[in-house]
Amino acid sequence: AALTPDRVELLRAVFWDMCAVASEVETIPHPDSNPDDDTDDSWTETILHITITAKTAEDMRAEYAFSEYQNQALTELAAELATMDILLTDLSVSQEQARELLRNLPADLSPERRAAVETACQLVGKVNYFWGGKSAQHTYCTAISWAEAQPGDLVFYPEDTHVGIVGGWDADGNILIIHCAYGYNNVVITKQEGFTTIGRPQYYSE
Questions:
Q1: How far, CA to CA in Å, does 194 sit from each of 124, 138, 187, 202?
Q2: Helices marked H in 123-172 — which ranges?
Q3: Which of 63, 68, 190, 191 has the smallest set of CB atoms within 10 Å of its CB?
């Protein structure tokens, strides 16, 4: 599938069809701050309120006058929304994410930490999920605070049910985690959601 310019325009048209846009102008008069002086500094403030409301899939059935076949297809797709969400998120995970993360590693990062992050990034999108090894890894870590995090440190879900590697931070300062996620069935790069504790592998201090 190719996202050609004409298809981009079709997607843009569908997007606006699915969004109801309403606007309202609010006028607020501000009186003269001192009616007793010779200067009238009263003024009027004008605020434009724009409201965008997304239409539902059910709304769009009527909007586009779906045929029986199209209605059936939409019903089947709606029944698989949870699966579709996972697939769509998977599509957003790319090798470019891994390359960007590696480009932003601190220049003074130790060779051991850099090697750990580089190895993890090489697996993004390539290795299926498998269970095991989480609690053992936590055993060989020293507890640290999130503020002390460095690329190569390990992060864990409650009760060590899942483990990830600190890869770095995004442009907004959010920590980025490399991990093999069950929901994605692959190695991905995500934010902190779900990870509650962080540890420093004793390996780095040996």
A1: 19, 16, 16, 23
A2: 134-139
A3: 68
